[in-house]
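Format notes (please read before filing issues)

Several people have asked whether sequences and structure tokens are stored in separate files. They are not. Every record keeps both together, in the order shown below: the sequence lines, then the token lines. Line labels are part of the format and must not be stripped during preprocessing.
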Amino acid sequence: MLQIPSDSEKAAVWKAYQERRPTRVPLRWTANSRIVLLNPELNPEGYGYREFLHEPRVSLAVQARFAEYLATTLNRTCDSSCELPAQWRFAVESQNVYDAAYFGAEVRYEPGQVPCTHQFLTLDDVDAFLARDFSRPLENPWVRDRLAFRERLVAEAEHFSHLGRKGTVAAFGVGFDGPLTVAANLFGSDVFLLLAADPERAERLLRHITEACLLRNQALAGLAGGWKKGDWGWAADDSVQLISTAMYVERVAPVHEFWYASISDTTPASRRRSIHLCGDATRHFKTLVDRLGVVSFDTGFPVDHGRLRAELGPDIEISGGPPVSLLRQGTPEQCHARARDILLSGIKDGGRFILQEANNLPPCVPLDNLAAVYEACLEHGQYPR
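Then the structure lines:
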């Protein structure tokens, strides 16, 4: 029977990890509101994403229910606090459509799925896209819509409570899913033809996308009190899994370096950069360490954890774990065995590993499977005293 650590014991595990004197591998789950919206047991009203993203009452209710579920249920299977927050923290959620929608893609709502966009540009549209002016991001129709929705959320939150708790609405902001990923969202597979056939034009396209998203994020940060460079650089770009390392170095890495330098006071020598890369992208990781100074990787699958540790060395932080398909469809025994094998692969060498799902929990994952991973972590994640 799994003995759940107390919140103070969990906090001690994280503190030791952060201070580079780990006692045990910490376990976290990354999840979002889809685990409520797309789970009929947690969403008996049958709310859909169209309602969630456009009706303040629904958005607040689902976000509060999600936060409650984390504290009372999901966090019992990982090293996160099981204490309910004193107040809910709400946000204008966008899922992963925000970049494409900003550039004009239609947001679609398919039954039983998260929102999506579809390719709506071709190579014939590249020059016109490069000529578009994105210097006034707060006038963008999608941004205006989301800012207006935030005001409606704020007004609704004045009258909303859940479990006797009120909540506040965060300032509206978005991330950036990476230049190649956004280009693929807009132009589909055509962008990879462009990379091969016209690399100069392709790099101009990636740079134009990146500059536009940088201006957008800076403008939104300005509304929230001001924008300034951080002391840590972060990035994501899942679509680099679809190109060779040579093509990455020649045509995408310079744009990634521009992004890192624009959002942070870092250089490759700083060794204060992280990146999220789902999919089969680990062949690029050593290059990212050597050329861009990335020292923290948030991974998806497939990943050979032992080989990756041996290749990157003991000082690089790696986050990852069992594939979500196994967590969703496997047995507790299979989930325990997979987590155990990862923890015993050599990935712990150096004390820079965080166990989690690979990557982002889907809805309807059996809690017994998550508890089995936690049990494996408690059994096999310990470091020598």
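For reference, the curators noted about this record: Residues 33-222 form one domain. DSSP finds 16 helices and seven strands in the chain.
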